[in-house]
Description:
single chain; three-stranded antiparallel sheet; SCO5918-like; SCO5918 family protein
Amino acid sequence: MRCVIARYPFDLTRSDVLASMEGVTPEIVTGESVTIGRRRYPVKQVGQIITRQDRRDFTGGEVVRAMTRLGFTCHDRPEAEPVRVLTPLQTASALLGAASLEV
């Protein structure tokens, strides 16, 4: 499939992208991302690897459009991780435990 990223045309196939990303450790996802294989990569990391261009030269939207057209699943933002909230009983025991250490 022919796509344009940062005003340069690229002929990309799904298998080319899979081969390029094989063995690449995903960076921490903070924004848009794409699932390739079993891993979730930031779109800018994928764009940099498949185009060999600097990340500042293209937008995430260009990579998302190309990856979507190739059949990869793209995500807007990372899912929020659950926040651990202590129950009142856990809070009391933590406070009592800390108080007994001070004695």
